[in-house]
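Notes from hallway chat w/ T.B., transcribed later so I don't forget. T.B. wanted the structure written out for a chain they're using in a teaching module, and asked if we could keep both sequence and structure tokens in one place. Agreed to drop them here.
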Amino acid sequence: MKETFYDIFHQLNNTPRPSHHEERVADYLCNFAEKHGLRYRRDAQNCVVIEKDATPGHENAEPVVILNHMDMVCVAKDGYLRDGHPFDPLNDEIRPYIEIVKNPDGTESRWMKAEGTSLGADNGMGLSMALAILADDSIVHGPLEVLTTTNEEDGMSGAEALSTDFIRGRKVINLDSEAYNEITVGAAGAYLQIAHFEADWKPIPEGYAFRRIVIDGGLGGHSGVDINKGRCHANKEICHFINDLADKDMLICAINGGTANASISSVAEVVLAIKPENGNALANAAAEYNAMLQKKYAQTDAAINMRCEETEPRKQYLCNASDIMQAVEELPVGMIAMREDMPGTVMTSNNAGRICTDANEVSISCHSRSFSNEEMRKLGQGITETFKKHGATNIQLLMDTPAWVERPDSPLLALTCQTFKDVLGFEPKKVAMHFVLEAAYYVQKYPGVEIASIGPLIIEPHSTSERVNLDTADNIWKVTVELLKRLA
């Protein structure tokens, strides 16, 4: 019995695979190759390429690469429990389920979601299709290389470190797009940095009460494709609230927010030590700010909520917390500029995805994107200066990925468009997207490469609302199989 790509997707979901922790899923890919008698290579970054010989009679065709990444942005709903314990992205599986939705025209659509977490259809659905092709000897293709990279979602270090001889093919089908009726022909560049502020701890005097200010209920979402939707950035809002408080007796014990560098922060919290007599004033201020948030984000984050609650005592407070929170408030967050040549497409943006407090430091991540490499680096370097001004002791640059635009006369693009038209009855729109793809690295490393990026309809990637339309997944499968046959 053939393994469908849905079968393989369920297997992938049994293997935890957040960015930076891909060892087990790389093992899975190598074992998959061995199970099917296929050659494979694995590099020091755990990137894996699996090779399959051409269908007999098609040995002289050009090699084709099917590209995906193995990591996922793994986030869980605030307070979500898995079998009685807090969800652990490093050890707990993803549990998908299918929901049938009635469409306005009376038809039905099948959607796959996940119980309490992001789904990982980005890019697990594309990877599952690639593996299903390797497992199916009835599919006609030329020499085939299935390349799967690591850490695509949080730095692209896997693609950046690929050797120039890791693949032979120069025709690349990338299954990491999320708009079913489009072919991605360009992607923004990315500048990802993390600022580290040394934690300056001091003991809290006697007589303080402790409160936790929480923002949750936001939609969050992908910091590229959802960045212009006006959603609440919880990290920014909570810092603005605390910075505006007039109470000088307030001590800040911790700041935490967001779940992934590439996601819009949907939850944030600050732990405060206050004079007991100021408790009511703080609660009232939080209630007023909550009313403002609910009005401000009524159309985008209907469940947004801010509250003030009692919390356990702390022994220390952060002397430099005000400076750190001022830095966050000064960051440009959200859409910064739109493309004039492509209505509706974001040109430049920035996202402050995570704030983390631990025993030694407070860290803040910023993920800047732009179709202009010059503007992206200018923005990123300006953010660096903001962090330095407010006392950052170390700033790590994790990603400086250039923008990519496929050449318009690409024969692979033309063939892909024609295949869509013949198989599905429509010609996809060619678009440049405000997410980041690894394509720029392939253009640099593999001269003459052509890339066509396609995929099923995925809504709200990088969030707990992530879902994939299975009807479009079935159709992308048909297009990919036919495209391989034509390339052979």
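Follow-up for T.B.: The chain has a mean pLDDT of 95. Might be a good example for the class.
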